[in-house]
Amino acid sequence: MGNQHTNLLDVVFEERERLLSRRSLLGGSAKLGVAAAVVFGLGAPLRMNRMSALAQDIALNTDVDVLNYALTLEHLEYAFYRDGIGNFTFGADPFGQSIDNNLAAIRDHEGAHVDALTQAISGMGGTPVAEATYDFGYGADPVKFLATAAALENTGVSAYDGAGQYIQNPDLLPVAGGIVAVEARHASYLNLVNGVEPFPNSFEMVKTPDEVLQIAGPFIVS
User: Fold this and answer.
1) Of the candidates 77, 76, 99, which has an alpha carbon nearest to the alpha carbon of residue 194?
2) Is residue 85 part of a domain?
3) Residue 65 falls within a domain, yes or no?
4) Is residue 208 part of a domain?
5) How far is it, in rounded angstroms, from Cα 158 to Cα 180?
6) Per-residue pLDDT, 173
7) Segments in the chain below pLDDT 50
């Protein structure tokens, strides 16, 4: 799980920075919409050198492997909100609700997911993967923060959906399903806040662990 943990997010970060640097970011919803469009429009083929650097199979041979894969994502998401909330003030969303309060609720959900997965892995006799050190790269830019939040949540949903097929113990399915459903609600909300369609497709796009590596960015630094 070590290499999986250290390689887990790559191209979103690089491409987001490159494309955002080409635009003059204005204010308000237009600003958020441009940032989100950049993040969610990254379906083009990756450059071969980036792919070769990240090409690495992830073996999900046991239920502990699957849960540790999920825990890796949850650690990253929880750390993102825990360390980022309070650096910005976002005001009201399109419904007149506080974005800041809703982000705090999402943070608490991610923390609960970390706790639940950690306990489940330990209860199965496994070793829960530890939190890493992260660099999310949003700096002092609230647009990048919200765009990164949406990218993480959307990627997380696709990752859960792709890993579900490897679960062997059917008793774990309600746990995984309960988490991915909440992650999908996070993604829909953050899509909306970023000016992107909250529910763009009839079916979620499933991603394999290798595909998650290919669309993610160097947020894990150690």
Assistant:
1) 99
2) yes
3) yes
4) yes
5) 9
6) 93
7) 2, 4-9, 11, 15-57
Tell me 130's DSSP state: P
Tell me how far apart the alpha carbons of residues 72 and 184 are, in angstroms, rounded to a whole number.
Answer: 17
Q: Which of these, 212, 213, 99, 103, lies nearest to 157 by C-alpha position? A: 212
Domain interval for residue 32? 2-215
Domain count for the chain = 1
CB 194 within 8 A of CB 33: yes
CA atoms within 13 A on the CB side of 173: 7
Contact of 156 with 73, CB cutoff 8 Å? yes
Distance of alpha carbon 76 from alpha carbon 82, whole angstroms: 10
In-domain check, residue 222: no
Residue 149: predicted pLDDT:
94
Contact 218, 13 (CB under 8 A): yes
